[in-house]
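Here is a protein:
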Amino acid sequence: MPHARVKEVYASADGFTAYEKGEIDDATFRNFVRETFSISSDDAAIDKTWNAMLRGIPQVKLDLLLRLQGEFRVFLLSNTNGIHLEHINNVILDAGGKGMELDSYFHRAYYSHRMRKRKPDAEIFEQVLDENNLLPEQTLFLDDFDVNIEGAKALGIKTVHVTSPNLVLDYFHA
């Protein structure tokens, strides 16, 4: 299937958003993919393809997160899903071998599929602010999607639009 068609389906098919919001489980998502793309792939093949979009996380960025934890309260707010989170923890971060899951790099991690909310909706930002007694004007939110940046800005949160791979390192002088 041509790349443009895949992007079009992703943007228009409700199953992707439902999965990120935790409205459907992994098995239902895989069946949604099979039906949407008219394929008969097994679960492992679907997971492998779905996870292909995930890249490694450079050690210098993980080290930066650990350093920032000593200076600031550091939170993760991610639109993600169960298949991706398992891949990040067990393959990209090799938590089984190193003992560090993604959550370890933050004071608290928030995942859309567990919260049943999704960026850029105000409710997801408000929950993080409220649960951690954060003031929007004293909170910095970094994201690579402009729509998520706009969602945070609408609540008075300070933002940085991450437009290049090393912008975070440059911003924090790492």
Summary: The chain has eleven helices and four strands.
